[in-house]
Structure formats: structure tokens, C-alpha cells
Amino acid sequence: MRARDKAAVSALRATLAALDNAEAVPVDETELRGLALEASPFGAGATEVARRELSEPDVVRVVRAEAAERLAAAEQLTAPAHADRAGRLRAEAAVLLRLLEEAAPDH
Question: How many angstroms separate the Cα of 20 from the Cα of each of 26, 53, 94?
């Protein structure tokens, strides 16, 4: 952020949000529908659940997916009017891929 690298900031913020979403515990709809109002949990923290802990391969998979999504979106933007947006998406993907390379265990 201090370097004012907009592509890096945008890519990292979106990827952190994707990682946060990946940690969410899926909710079973049958559990929600089966409770009567008077039987539902109440009070501070009554509905809180521990989030899933992602393994390193899970994190890598999410980051790769975010980079692939940006590259795919950039490929779709073929009109000259969208060249700037496609360039930003490619730059964001490059940031994420570079982070994966730097974090690889063989470096």
C-alpha cells in the first residue's frame, strides 16, 4: 500500500477476501429450517462457529484460482476500449503468481 501499487493492493485485498470466504463453514439449510423460533439459539455468540483452518495447499489453490480468474477475465476483454482493464487484471494475476513463486519451498 505504501508503494502505491494499485494492482498489488487490489489483488491482495480480493485474495484475502477469497481466503476468508474459503475459511467459512458451510451452513446446512436443514439445520436452519428445523428450528422453531423458541428453540433457536440466542444470546451473544450463540450462533458463532469456529472457522475452518486452511492448509497450505488450500491457500495455494485459492490464490491460483484468483490469478486464473483474472487471466480469464482479461482474455474476455478483447475490445480496445477495455485494454486498460485487461492490463490491470493481468498485472494483478502477475502479482499473485509472483507471490506463489516466492513462497514455493524450493526457493
Answer: 13, 10, 21
Residue type, 9: V
How far apart (Å, rounded) are the C-alpha atoms in residues 54 and 65? Answer: 15
Evaluate whether 85 touches 107 at the Cβ level (below 8 Å).
Answer: no
pLDDT digits (tens, 9 = 90+) for 40-94: 666 666 666 778 899 999 999 999 999 999 999 999 998 999 999 999 999 999 9
SS3 (DSSP) at 10: helix
C-alpha cell at 63: 490464490
| Sign of the CA dihedral running 77, 70, 6, 24 | positive
Number of other residues whose CB lies within 10 A of the CB of residue 4: 7
Cell numbers of 88, please? 490491470
Which of 43, 66, 63, 76 has the alpha carbon at shortest distance from 104? Answer: 63
